[in-house]
Amino acid sequence: MPELPEVETIRRTLLEHVRDIKIEKITLIWPSAVCGWEDKAFKDLVTGRRIKTIDRRGKYLMILLDEDWTLIAHMRMTGRLNYYPEHHEPEKHTHVVFQLERGELHFSDVRKFGRIQAIPTPLRISESSLHKLGPEPLEEAFTPAVLKDRFGKKKVFLKAALLDQTVLAGMGNIYVDESLFLAGLSPDRRVDTLSEEEISKLHHAIQNVLQAGIDAQGTSFRDYRDANGEKGSFQQALQVYGRGGKPCQVCGQTLERKRLAGRITVYCSRCQS
DNA sequence: ACTAACCTGTAA
DNA sequence: TTACAGGTTAGT
Questions:
Q1: How are beta strands A115-120 and A34-35 bridged, if at all?
Q2: What is the gyration radius of the CA atoms in chain A, in angstroms?
Q3: Which of A8, A96, A150, A165 is 20 to 30 A from residue A180's alpha carbon, by CA?
């Protein structure tokens, strides 16, 4: 579920509570949520370490520990990281409990797709799937020229290109559809047909939509919650995602809904071309 | 480039 | 009962 704005919101709401806090004990309720380590090895590795800070790369959360180890968490569709200031009984889908010096951090995931892994910090880029990620769309280095370069000679649909994490890191089904609507571009355009001006519009729309998503603390269309269990509010601002068959809020035309690049895609055939 | 698979819950 | 869900990967 969480895309860049949701993961960024989790990062921020979690960091407030856990910066410089020591992990005292780990309980693996469903050990498969941790990949790459035997239960005991993982516990030994992380127990007693202090959380220095939390970074984000695309949809990955990176919890930096002292002694140069990093926990990498990916929520996939329904993963959550919840902070509780007091003891809290694990809920039905809680898989890992980190008992902290102050409070507890629970990783839960209804669909069991989400994962946590531990890697040595200096090797993090080359040793994980992180090294294949495209640029961060909200960083200054991300310019229209970079976007054009990332599309390269691809001939795929815009929808597929923007969902591809190696092209650009952090966009998912919601923010891709919203960005394309804002840019006035049809999701089934081939990326090699875009003009300079269209690339520029798309670049602007991507930054705009992602920043608005962060400002609204993410989109709680269904399951998403931040580290405090709070919903975001960007669902109220959605122009197309989840609105197939309803009228376009700009021109009134019925919004199209069809499967593209394997994902349900909603767009306005009048406003987007 | 598309599909299935990984899972569970919810809504049609 | 069936389809579908914010993601990714491995297969064809």
A1: parallel
A2: 20
A3: A8
User: What predicted TM-score, i.e. pTM, was given to this entire model?
Assistant: 0.97
Distance in Å from B10's C1' to A223's CA comes to 12
Query: pLDDT of A201-255, one tens digit each?
Result: 999 999 999 999 999 999 999 999 999 999 999 999 999 999 999 999 999 999 9
Nearest C-alpha neighbor of A81 from the set A106, A102, A110: A106
Question: Both tokens of residue A164?
Answer: 């591809």
Instruction: Report the C-alpha gap between A226 and A220 in whole angstroms.
Output: 9
Which nucleotide is at minimal CA–C1' distance from A59?
Answer: C7
Residue A188, classed as helix, strand or coil, is coil
A144-267 has which CATH code? Answer: 1.10.8.50
Q: Judge whether A16 counts as a catalytic residue.
A: no
Fold of A4-131: N-terminal domain of MutM-like DNA repair proteins (3.20.190)
